[in-house]
Amino acid sequence: MNVLRMAFQEEIQKREDLFFSAEPVLSGYRLTHHLMPPSGWMNDPNGLCFYEGRYHVFFQYSPLTAKGGLKFWGHYSSEDQLDWRYEGVALFPDGPMDCHGTYSGSALEWEGELHVFYTGNVKLEDGNYDYVHEGRKSSTIYVKSQDGIRFGPKRAVLQAKDYPEGYTCHIRDPKVWREDGRWRMLLGGRTAEDRGAALLYEGESPVSWRFRREMTTREPFGYMWECPDFFVLEGQAVLSVSPQGLSREEFRFQNLYQSGYFFLEKDWEAREEIPWNFQEWDMGFDFYAPQTFQDKKGRRLLMAWMGMPAEEEEYQNPTLEEGWQHCMTVPRELRLGKSGICQYPVRELEKLRRKGTGLRDRPARVRGPFDLELSLKGGCGGISIGEELFLDYQDDVAVLRLSQEAGGGRKRRKARIPSGCVDSVRILADTSAAEIYLNHGEVVFSTRYYPKAAERMIQIEAEGYEGNVWEMAPMRLTKRQR
Ligand code: FRU
């Protein structure tokens, strides 16, 4: 083992042991059904896959600081997406090609092995660089594993010389899949003219790649596209990206950065541009860099980082005082809806439901995390959770509001409902996070929020509603014994 890795290992283990020790060291904000960092900071989901009978969730991980610094790959795995095992750090930034970060990437199974591709980040130090046009090297690195836990040697399969001309040094986040016996890869990029684009590569093997084409819109759409993904959902080809640099509008692009998808035409390979039909994945405060994969049941599942790369000025995240920040969304199953993709929590999560209370005519009091399901008659109405989180809707508009304190300074997000009205609501409320699904995931709001007390009163004002709320048991979280 290299010396740098050993030093990291020791320091990280000390911090993670605290998290897994029997005495809980964190307060009531520690999450019970969302994956969170065992120490420090978490961002993008990486290498999502189902391999050797287990779901694997790798993630961008800064175990040494809650404010996000040097990036490693952390790793959770689970047989059933309820009982999670923390596997430890999978990739360390300990080589000459990734010493300033093992950045985002993907994984896929092929011929019994797990093939992982990620971006190795290197920042040049001596010089006056802007780190956009010069001063940064990002290589696409390939590693293999036979058990999903230990990885073989790192090998750069694409480097600066292999990227097309006309780009800045911002090229990263390989998403790799296989199609018709070929290997395909998408990278996210920023052109020299500050346009976001995805770069498509093709290969005969996981180590030999050639550039096929750029994929972007006719008119510029943001200056950078991060974390691209490509998949086919019920026959529809989808390109998902996380663009940066879109201007805020009343109903769209309300966060600093966005994540969304384009529906591609059937003959997209023959077309020069991609169609102008971007839809945002999520309308809440905290959702970025989603990634999808297919599981053994053939479901297309999505997870995203429940956070944002740069903080809005008004946001004061109280978990910082506890030495950690951010989490993942729950896994969501994707389906094609009438007006776009619907996302809904995987069925497995319903197994966490415990004591249930019917919701009819009077407020309900719940203790701790809960799962709420409600059918409504459209029109206008509202749901409040304590005096802290409010969902109001009228016809085709829904508004999420947080109190000043519970929102950590963040207040309001709006969404249009493509089908014209709200007829069902599902809320998964964790200790300091809420995922709100309208119309079975036609529109979703994901947000961190920080309620004062574990006991919350649910109040509904609507015409003719009915539903249930269940207290939720925590997911089981263990740590691999070394
Ligand atoms: C997105 C991102 C990726 C990058 C990673 C670094 O949040 O900026 O583009 O690979 O995070 O942590």
Description:
With about 475 residues, this protein is mainly β. It starts with a helix and ends with a strand. Bound molecules: beta-D-fructofuranose. Beta-D-fructofuranose (FRU) binds next to strand 1, strand 5, strand 9, strand 13 and strand 17.
Strand content: over 45%
**Got a strand count?**
35
Tell me the Rg in angstroms: 22 Å
- Ligands: beta-D-fructofuranose
Give the N-to-C terminal Cα separation: 15 Å
The average pLDDT value, as a whole number, equals 95
Describe the global form: globular
Q: Give the uncertain stretches in residue-range form.
A: none
Output the structural class.
mainly beta
- Compute the number of helices: 1
Spatial sequence of strands, sheet with the most strands: 19-1-2-3-4-35
Oligomer: single chain
**Percentage of helical residues?**
under 10%
Q: What can be said about the biggest beta sheet?
A: 6 strands, mixed
